[in-house]
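Morning F.,

Quick status update on the modeling queue. The single chain you submitted on Monday has been processed. Sequence for confirmation:
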Amino acid sequence: MPSEIASLLDWLAGHIELHAAAAVGLLLTLAWIANRLVKRVLARGLYRQLLAAFGIDRAGSRPLNVLIARLAQIVPALIIYGGIELASPRLDSQIVAILRNIAQASIVLAVALALGSMLSLAEQVYQGRPGAHNRPIKGYLQIGKIAVYAIATVLMIATLSDRSPLILLSGLGAMAAVLMLVFQDTLLSMVASVQISSSGIVRVGDWIEMPQLHADGAVIDIALHTVKVQNWDLTITTIPTKRLISEAFKNWRGMQESGGRRIKRALLIDQNSIRFLDQAGSSRLRGFSLLDDYLGGKQHELDVWNAELAQRGVPALNARKVSNIGTFRSYVERYLRRHGSVRQDMSLIVRQLNPTPEGLPLEIVCFANVTAWAAYEAVQADIFDHLLAIIPEFGLRLYQRPAGADMQSLQGQPG
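Structure tokens below.
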């Protein structure tokens, strides 16, 4: 067997091209075998250790798989770079230099891709931490990837051209203005992303409104160039990151963190139904437990006032009386004060606005103790269901524009 190998080598020595091809083929075969072995070792050993160390489940281990594949590509490139010397006596020196430069560039590329995969893995691990949505780092990691790939590109070009990287970097100074013009959007987005992440003006999960871009929903992703918002109709709006710095938008995070959501709505009272309460009406309304102390105290106040007017001989026309609109306003305020779903430590106001052609607005401002959309709407509806149903008890009417049924009922009345 050794004699056969020796004779084969002697025969190849007389055929330079075949010798070089055999050496290159053997080198590529070794590189392929090394790549397969390294992948298996990393997959079975390092893969399991990293899964356990970072607490990643197999369903979300794609970044880890990519990282291992990138690391495995470094080994065959190193074998080719170091083993090309075996074929160099039979190869032209220029070909050897080219192959070595390509191997070096492949190593740089593999390392850069591995670092990019490592940053992606770091993002996934960070997202698993509690409170990660408050401080997103995706923009920073994307900046890191851009820097890694930019450096790798310079090193690869320098390696393939067999020049020093410093020579290439010195030439970039003259191209700085052009590069800034070409990458101005990326630079602006990078600055905006850093400002957003550092100041926390927008976080994943925030409800934001940006009408000019038709965005009204929850932020689901913050990246270097874009911020994705899932609107309440389940559509996705993509907002350029820089526009969140340069334009106005509304963030509802403060409402969500406070635990109270504002209710602000007005009842339009028909002004023709507003009047003073007579003795019988006042006595009937005192049947409401919410109004007993109010009407008692109000009546005492008016009796004292009117008695002083009588002593001065002022005509009874100037006497003060209790009105149904004032009584209803007091009832609404007391009703909200005792409502279990209304925050009592936040603003609670029942006020009259300026009269309008549609009636007298009685505005209600208070805060529900829930912020979720469905629960909030249920509390608001419960409050106004009660008020709309009870308002006739005060002799008041809500304004409503005449409809077809109203016209028919008027026509049916005798003239």
